[in-house]
Amino acid sequence: MTCPSCQNPIPDGARFCSSCGAPAPQPIGVGTYTEPVAERDNPKEPIRVGDSTIVIEGELVPVVDVELGPRTSIYFEHHILLWKQPQVRLGFMGLKNAAKRMFAGLQIFISTAQGPGNVAMSREAPGQIVALRLAPGQIVDVREHQFLLATDTVAYDFYWQQGLANVFFSRSGLFIDRFSAAGRDEGLVLLHGYGNVFEKALAPGEQLDVEPGAWLWKDASVRMDTVTVLQSGGGGGLLGALGAFVGGASLMMNRFTGPGRLGLQSMTYHEPAYEGASQQGGTSNIGGVLGSLFNPKQ
């Protein structure tokens, strides 16, 4: 669990953050099952990394306000920049496997900012900011197009979806972004979650079935598979699948298996459809690849 005030990790079972003393979010238990814990708000306290300070401002459409020190640089998606001081130097860096990323409609270059000075970013949608501190060697996987920025101590890579069912039916894109603190220093990754954000700590072997558009990030130790509502326990068999179809729910679900943390978001994008049509969150992997080439801003 992450402290909602200072963004430092909180050990499982702790009632207070050992870094700042803030109360730890307490999961609600139903039998042996603990429900996902809601992120109560955007981070309230300044986040300090190296010689830089990050403040999250605003509520409905939050803004990430960064005061860069002279020794720190960050990288971010190019279309989220709001403002910067003239002395902040902007640049770009290439990403690995550029040809594969271009085929998938992903950006092959990413913007950078070098301090000292002030720079700010925001996505054009309501939601919450998730700040993930990465210890050396720690790895997290993030849904496409929901990464905001990261410090230069974090390596940015991606990997193909594994398994044919995931490739064709997961609706999470062909690729998953992967961030890791590769050196000896800790790193920071900021994400934008649509709507409200929740975090679920999965025990070893524990599973959670999630609507395809509702997952945001996960620890690399968490496995993701794709199942139908028929395979998902409690789906009600064939009648349950028909009920999901008539009710406009997704017929496919992403299944996550622990151990590790799983980030969820309450607001998923659904294209308008006629009444009673099946609605599926996320972005279709079939036909969505070519479309994303002509609509890179997502």
Shape, principal axes of CA atoms: globular
Order of helices and strands: EEEEEEEEEHEEEEEEHEEEEEEHEEH
Number of helices: 4
The CATH architecture assignment turns out to be 4-Layer Sandwich
- Largest β sheet strand count, sense and barrel closure: 7 strands, antiparallel
**Mean pLDDT across residues:** 78
Name the beta content range.
35-45%
The separation of the N and C termini measures 29 Å
Q: Provide the CATH top-level class.
A: Alpha Beta
CATH homologous superfamily identity: Mitochondrial biogenesis AIM24
Structure at a glance:
By secondary structure, the protein is mainly beta.
List the helices and strands and how they pair.
Elements: E1 29-30, E2 33-34, E3 37-38, E4 47-49, E5 52-57, E6 63-68, E7 73-76, E8 81-84, E9 89-94, H1 98-103, E10 109-114, E11 117-121, E12 127-134, E13 139-142, E14 147-151, E15 154-160, H2 164-169, E16 175-181, E17 187-194, E18 197-202, E19 207-210, E20 215-219, E21 223-228, H3 237-246, E22 252-257, E23 260-265, H4 288-294
Antiparallel strand pairs: 1-2, 3-18, 4-5, 5-6, 6-11, 7-10, 7-14, 8-11, 9-10, 12-17, 13-16, 13-20, 14-17, 15-16, 18-23, 19-22, 20-23, 21-22
